[in-house]
Structures are given as structure tokens and as C-alpha cells.
What we know:
With 501 residues, the chain is mainly alpha-helical. Helix content is 77%, strand content 4%. The strands form two sheets. Strands 1-2 form a two-stranded antiparallel sheet. A two-stranded antiparallel sheet has the order 3-4.
Amino acid sequence: MPGVPPSCTFYGERMITASSRVGYRSLLRNRWFLRLWLAQLISQTIQNAANYGLLVLIAETTGSSTLIGLGIIAFSLPAVFFAVPAGVLVDRINRRQVLWMSNLLRGLFAFGFVASLLIDRNDVVPIYLLTFLIAVVSQFFTPAEGAAIPVLVDERELVNALSLFNITFTLSQALGFILLGPVILNVVAPVTLMVVGASVTFDAVQVLYLVIGLAYLLCAALILWLPNRQFELERSAVQGASSLARVKKLVAEINESWRFVYRDRRLLIAILQLSFGSIILLVIGQLAPKFVQQLLNRPPANAALVFVPAGIGLVIGSAVMPRVVKRLGKARSISVGIIGVSITSVLLVICQRVARQMDPDHWFNDPAFLGLILLLVFILGCELGLMTIPAQTVMQERTPDALKGRVLALQMLVYNAVSIPVILFMGGVADIYDIAVVMGVLAVTVFVGGLFSVYLDSRVLAEPGASERKGPPSGAQAAGQHEQRELEPLMQGEVYQQAPH
């Protein structure tokens, strides 16, 4: 069949590979899956690099933490309004077309960044608008990409394929925020090119967005090389209600999910704790340019000095977290993380003040001072893992499989909705006061808000019958018994009978 590798045959609605081996190596031998995976890796990496470039650009142009916060809102807000409608629409159209068109549009918007910066580098309004548009288009790319995976792989390889995509999502954050964005902004010199017969010089930020635009076009080409007929076959199998009916059903499912979360107060507290920790991470990203300017006496483009050690700490902390939680317990682990974040935030400022007193002229070039700051930021990343991962574990344990996707969506909704006023408030504080004051406010907020959530959790655990309301133990039978017990008042309706697994 033209366009289909000889090692593959169509079977029903899936493409089945001839190889019987299951694993990442056999997955990557599937040329169609490899192209989809490369498109994901490249597109998500450059999207994170674009977000990094945005923060640095606004910091260099305005120096305002509030405006940096508005940039963060510009690329996070579309998820609140467009994620669900995009998912519904993607179910009704050819997903291959969604994938390549979304990459093409994001590439054009990236070139729009370059044009805007060439016209007026100090005008941030077009930058916000283009960032928002890229984020809107990304809401369509993500569900279309996830839905395309089962079309291109064998059923036996589906779990490994999904796992690889999840790993790639985390890897792309590191590659974009820690590697690609900082390297281009700190290493690449201005480049002069001939554009329409005229010589045009592009600075580092403009070069970054040129690379991003070209990379998006490469992703569109990778998607165009996927077999369109298979996606047409898959799309033709989509049956059911109209898009409006699907939206109504989704709204009903979300309402039922809210009811379930409201009834399980430990789950509700875990959602709030996870959202709280994620917002702290977002605030640290917002403050990173001002942090390196005021505490390290370096330009905003060196914000990787915060992102790199914090990211490494978060990853390493996540790796050892199961042992820590097993020894300390979830509530105590969260408490240690909260207290640690508060203390480390204050220590960062104290170390800078001591270094300035000891060597007023060259304190920022002292290797011992810089090493200590990087170590503290690394520890901060580990402590943030202590705050968030146990709460995420509780959320997973206490949520039945039939509700996991919707509970996660609710958590993201809470996170995005609450993060907006927090980012604006912290940005305003950072613009008015010294970074030392901001870090103090952050430390107090984490200490008071975090420990209050732990106190509420302990009160719920102390209530009579709390042990009977624990999440399901391991094993399919125990999970089924828990789901039946917890969802019995809600399972009368059609929503749970047809809930996606």
C-alpha cells in the first residue's frame, strides 16, 4: 500500500506492526510513530524555549515582574478556556490535519515575533498577543497528538508509547527552559541575513524565535509524512452525538466530578496542596529574572542559573521521593517540604547580604558565593518536590480510574484560576520592593498556607471513620470495591456508565 511501510498492515482501525517485540526500541523502529514522537519532542522543546525567551525579553525590555507575570498568564490562560472545546473538536475532524496545521500556525506566529521585534522591540503588546495565540493553537495540538498515538502503534505497544510521550514531555521542559533557550540567548552573537534584498541584523532573542519558527515548520513536515488514509479511517469510525451534545455531557461530567471531590475532603485538600506547590513553582519562574539581577548581579538572560539547579533538584527529588515518603509519611513529607522552602528562601537573601558585606566590590564574582547560591536553589527544587509529589500521590490514590482524567482537569482548572491573581500580586510586590522583601513574602506565604493545609488534612484524618474513607488498596478487586463504595451515590446516571477509562 503506498505510503505504508511494508512491515505494517492495517487491521480494523489500527496499524499493526509485524514485530512482536514490545519496548521503546521496537516503537522507534515504527517510522510513523518515530515521526510523531519527534514532532512532539521538537514542538514541546521549542515551545518551552519560546516561553523562556518571552520571560527574558520582557525582563530586559521593561524590568517589571508584573509584566513578566502577564506573559506567564498569556501562555497559561488558554488552557482554562480552550482545552475542553479543543478536545471535543479534535474528536470530530482529521487529527493529522490538526497536527500539521497547528505546527504551521505556530511557526508563522513565531516569525511574527521576529517581525514585531524588528519593528519595535519595546512594544510588548504584540508579544502578549502572539504568545496567547500560540498557546491557543497548542490546546488543539495536544489532544490531537494523544489521540494519534493509538492509530500508529500496536495495542501491545500502547502503554510503552504513552510512557515515552510522558517522559518526553518532562524532557522537553528541561531541553527548552534549561538548554535551548539559555544557550541561544547567552551564546549566539547577532546574525546578519539578507531579507528581500536588504541586510537585516537579528539579535539573540530574534534568532531564538527564527529557530523556533523553522522548527515548527519541520514538525509540520514530519506530520505531513504520516499516512493520511489511516487517520481518515480512524476519523470515519467516530460515531455518536453532535458536538453540542458532547459539550453538554462534558459539563455534566465535570459537575459530577466536583461533587465527588467535595465529598472526599482528603482529595480536595490534596488538590489544593498540589495546586499551591505548582503555583509556587510558577512564582519562582516569574521572579527568576529579577532574582539573577538583584541577588547575583547578572542580566536576565542568565535566568538559567535559577532554572537549571532548581530543575535538577526537582528531578532528583522526584526520583528519591518514594523512599522519603515511605519513611516520613505523606503529611510529614509535605510539612518538611513547606518548612524547607520557607527557610531556603530566606537563606538565599541572607547569603547575598553576607557576601556583599564581606566583599562589597566583587561579591558577585566569588565562586564560593555563586556555588552556595546554586546549591541552595538545588535544595529548593528538592523541597518543592516534597511539597507536591506526596499530594499528587494522594490525589491518584483516592481517585477511581473512571474519574482520574476529570479530577486532573479540575486540579489544572484550580491551579490556573488561582495562579492568575497570585502572579499579579507577586509581580506588583516585586516591582515595588526589593527582591529580599519578595522572598520574605514568599517564605511566609508558603509557611502559613502550606502548614494550614497540613493542619486541615490532619483534622480530616482524625475524624471518626476516616480510615474507612481511605483510597483503594492495591489490586483490581480492592480498587473495584472502593470505586463502588465511593461512587455509589453518583453511579445512577449515564455519566459514569459511559465515563472514559
